[in-house]
Structure formats: C-alpha cells, structure tokens
Amino acid sequence: MAHDNPPLEEILRTVREFLVDLTPRLDGKDRYHGLVSAFLVEIVERELAGEWQHPATADDRRLRELALALGVEPGDEHLHAVLSRALRAGRADARMDEVLGVLIDHVVDKVRVTRPDLLALEHRADD
Amino acid sequence: MSTAEPRFDPATEAVIERLREAVRRRYGTTVDIARFQLATLGGSNRTLLFDLVDDRHHRRLVLRQETIAADYTPFLQAPIQWPVLNTVYARGLPVPEPLFELEPVDDLGLGYVVGAIAGETLPKRILGDPAFQVARARFPRQVGTMLARLHRIEPAAVPVLADVPESGDTLEAWMAYYDRWEEPHPVFDFAFRWLALHRPRAPRRCLVHGDFRIGNLIVAPAGIRALLDWECAHIGDPLEDLGWFCTRSWRFGRNHLPAGGLASRDTLYRAYEAAGGEAVDREAARWWEIFGLLRWALYNLMQSYGHMSERRRSPAFAACGRNIATIEYDLIMSIAGRFD
Q: Is 80 exceeded by the pLDDT of residue B296?
C-alpha cells in the first residue's frame, strides 16, 4: 500500500539530520554513539537506494554460480554457509584466483553500502 | 568523604566505596581516594582513574575492573593478565606499575590496580598533532626496541599463557572462535584456507603482546611512555606483533606508511633488528599482516555477535557488524596482491 508522506527515505534522512545536529553537543560515550548512529542510518539509506541498482539477487546469483562451480548444490541453506564449508574443505584450492575474483565482486557490493568512500577507484560506482 | 566529586551512576558510586575499602585494606586506614574519572573506552572493562591520598602524598592510579563475564570473547581474564603484566614490568618494559590484584574480599569482581601514566592515546592526535612531532620521529626506534625486548621473554617465564588458545595453533584457535559466533563469511573461509596454504615455517616462540598498535601506547611529546592492554597476550611468533602493527587497519588511512601510518616497514624492521630482534623474514611478516586483517574482521564479528545475541548492545557494536565488509575488502584485495 502507499503510505502518506514522508516516505521511508525521507524519514531516515530526518533522523540522520537530527543526529548530525545533536552529536556535537554531546560528549564522551554519547557523542561517539551519536556519530555511529548517524552512520548506521546512512547505511540503511544507501542500502535502500542501492536495492534497485545492485539488487541482492545479483549477489545471490553470483555466489550460487560459484557454489555450483565448486561442485556444491546450494539447496535451501544460506549461501554463505554453503560456500564457507566448501572453501574450508579445500574445494577451491586448485582455482584460488578465480574464486578470489568472485569474492572481490561480492565484497565490493557490500562496501558500496557500508563505506563507498573506501573503495579503490576501479571499484567506484557508475559502472 | 570527598565532597567536590562529580556524582556517577549508582553502580560506579558503589564501586568507588568498595575501592576505598580495598585500598585501605592494603595501604592503611589513614589513606583516602579522590578525583575519580571514568575513562570513556569502548571496551568491556571499567577503567577508573583515581588519586591515592595520604597526609603528604598523592598518586594517580587506575582500577581495571572486568564488568562483563564474556564467555564468548578471546580476551584474557584479569587473573591471567596479572602475572603477565608483572613479568613484563619486572623485565623493564614500559608498562604501568602493577600494584595489587582484586581479591574476593574486595567484592569488586576480577581486576587489578596499576599506577597511572599520563599521556596521549588517541591515534589521530599522535599521528597528526604538531605537539607529537618529536615523538613521531622517535617512534620506529622506540617501537623496534620495545618489541625486541618483549620478544626476549621466553614462554617459560609466562607459564600462565601456556593453555591460552592463541598460544596453540593460531589458525585453529581463530577458526574455533569464528565458528562460535555463528555467522559464516565465505571471505573468512577463503582467507583461512589461503593462510593455511601459505603458512610460514615454524618460528621461534616467545611472549607476544597480541594487540600491539598505536592505540595501545601512551605517548608524550618526547616519545612513547607505556604499552597498555595485555588481554590479547599469548605465546607465539614474534613476527605476529610486527605484522599486527603494520596491518592496514592500523595505518589510519596513511597506507604509504605501513608501520602504523608512521614509517615504512623497512624502517621498523631495521630498528627491530638493530635492537637485537631476530632478522625479519619479510614474507612471513606480510603473512601476519594478512592474518591480522582476518583477525581484526573476526573481532568485529565477535562484537556484532555480542550485539545480535543481546549480551551487550550498543550502536558501536552494531556498526562492527557492517564494518566487517570494509575489512574484508582490505583482506581480499591484499591476498590478491592489489593492496600493499
């Protein structure tokens, strides 16, 4: 259903702006947690905004293909668990470079949401 | 009773009363304590600074008290830290003077009291403030000397560390912690595997600080005054401390200076070797840097697990969970040889 204004992203922005405004007037632990809270809201904003650009399903597909390439049938279990087990068992030992490439893409998608400013130039958005 | 003191929360006030009794039990009923200050550290321990006062003297001390019995962390409990701290102090390393360990009669739980050392601990100031220019210039030599001296402490001198998991096979110990925190990360398992396949040859074993980085040093304008925080100490490869110091997460964005954002690796290694440390196997030290990234990511997973399992919640612990991605990025790019 369509809710009334403000929409989600506008509510988040409002909360973040309040935190950013409040935090300099706090000290010690409260100030630190104020800064971190604003950062957490920022992450949610980016995650919501990025959902249509880099849908979670794209990373799922990427990891599913990797699992199949390593000879594992993903099934219903969480993909991360399936892959972790396969990698730990040494199933990728003969193709570390190939797996490395897939995992870099996987991590870059996460960092795009968490701290895009930390990405190397080659991984900046607009691709 | 001191009247001009700031009021703390009731729990801290109760601690202060018990601490007063604990101090009088050891130093006589004529002494008092005053000028309390809670350090705003992110960790799980209460760190309370106070003055020990008698009619002629006063001395600044620190109470380190464990406030959370964290069954899921690798951090050493105070009764293990205490003998280690005493050993390194007796060997002349710059650490706070150990004064007394808490006992059951003190009703303060686990912890100990040490002498306070004045100085700066904020990495941003140490790395950037012009007041620390001399300290920064002396850093590589001081760090190299300190580590070389620390690593001369043989395992037999700290028997209390023999059974600590990290004193055994490092990768196995961390794999066991990882499994306990119930969140599989393909990047972690890839890194564990890569590290196992590239493991350096069996090293000489000695006392390792385990968390040797700028944030655990007290620094004055003239140089390093003390090395803090022994809750990660274990028996291991001396290169682990060098590698951890150079780990990308501890360079504060100054990646052109891998040794803590302050110096090149070679400058640090040469200082270590000149101070009597063994010749640094560059490739093995790099292995420990990459291991350091995995270990730092796992510490973040631990904090996130504490948050998600409702054991201790805070915005900072929540952020640790999402911070993992940025460390994974450094880790995987380092393994790929694309980050130095």
A: yes
DSSP string, A20-83: HHHGGG--HHHHHHHHHHHHHHHHHHHHHHHTTTS-HHHHHHHHHHHHHHTT---TTS-HHHHH
Q: Please give the CATH architecture assigned to the domain spanning B10-115.
A: 2-Layer Sandwich (3.30)
- Rounded to an integer, what distance in angstroms lies between the CA atom of residue A106 and that of residue A66? 11
Q: Which has more confidence, B4 or A111?
A: A111
Cβ atoms within 10 Å, residue B114 = 20
Tell me, yes or no, whether A44 and A60 share the same domain: no
How many distinct helices (H) and strands (E) make up chain B?
Answer: 10, 9
Separation CA B320–CA B290 (nearest Å):
19
* Record: contact B189-A85, CB cut-off 8 A: yes
Let me know: does B80 contact B160? Beta carbons within 8 Å.
yes
Contact state of A107 with B187 under an 8 Å Cβ cutoff: yes
A1 touches chain B (CB under 8 A): no
pLDDT (tens digit per residue) in A25-63? 998 889 999 999 999 999 999 999 876 666 667 899 999
- From chain B, the residues in CB contact with A113 under 8 A are 322, 325
Q: In terms of CA atoms, which chain A residue is nearest residue B175?
A: A88
Question: Is the whole-model pTM more than 0.80?
Answer: yes
Domain that holds residue A17: 8-50
B123-335 fold: Aminoglycoside 3'-phosphotransferase; Chain: A, domain 2 (3.90.1200)
The pLDDT tens digits for B227-276 are: 999 999 999 999 999 999 999 999 999 999 999 999 999 999 999 999 99
Residue B261, Ramachandran bin (φ over 0: left; ψ between -120 and 50: alpha; else beta): left
* pLDDT tens column, B206-236: 999 999 999 999 999 999 999 999 999 999 9
Whether residues A105 and A61 share a domain: the answer is yes
β-pairing, B111-115 vs B58-66, is antiparallel
Q: Check if A37 contacts B (Cβ < 8 Å).
A: yes
Tokens linked to B110 = 């686990």
**Segment B85-127, tens digit of pLDDT:** 999 999 999 999 999 999 999 999 999 999 999 999 999 999 9
User: Does residue A85 lie within any of the structural domains?
Assistant: yes
Counted domains in chain A = 2
pLDDT recorded at residue B2: 47
